[in-house]
Each structure stands twice: as structure tokens, then as C-alpha cells.
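Reply to dn_fold:

You asked what the input looked like. This is it:
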Amino acid sequence: MAKAKQTGTPINPRIGERLLLRRRALDLTQKDVARRAGISTTVLSLLENGEQSVSVERLAVIAKVLGVSLDFLCPQEEVTEHEEADSEVEPTALEPVSQ
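and this is what came back:
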């Protein structure tokens, strides 16, 4: 069987790490985040492990679910723990994010 073609920008491993760390900081399961973002848990797992590409639009939806900005997920430089705390916003409610 042929492998499905990936679309979007290949994910930087640091983005996946930040997704995972933020999700765990909020004490959310992959299922919680995936449901709210309108993606599968498999896709979220692959994103967190840097093995899946993602569009900027989809990443923005996930960022909203996690209550962070795209800048937080896609830093250009190393971010200190203090700067991370300053970049956080309130996570969304339990309803799925509309696209």
C-alpha cells in the first residue's frame, strides 16, 4: 500500500516538544487536545514526535487549544522558562475549536 502524501510544512522537532510539554503542563490527554483541534490522536502523536507535517492553519488551531501563540510553538531562538510563562494565555474551553 502506498504511503499517504504529507502536506504542510515539515514540523521542527522543537515544535513537537513544545506541543507535548504544553499539553502535559495543562494535564490534557492527546485525546482531549485532538478532539478540540479536530484531528486524530495519531496525528497529534506524530506531531509531538516530529514525524508529521502540519499546515500553519492547523498548527494555529492546536496552539489555540493549548492556549499559546504560534510564536511560542515556533521560537526562532532558545526561550527561557521565564519567557515561556509570559507567553501563555488561557487555554480554550472543552468545546472543539471552530475552523
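The chain is about 50% helix and 5% strand.
Hope that clears it up.
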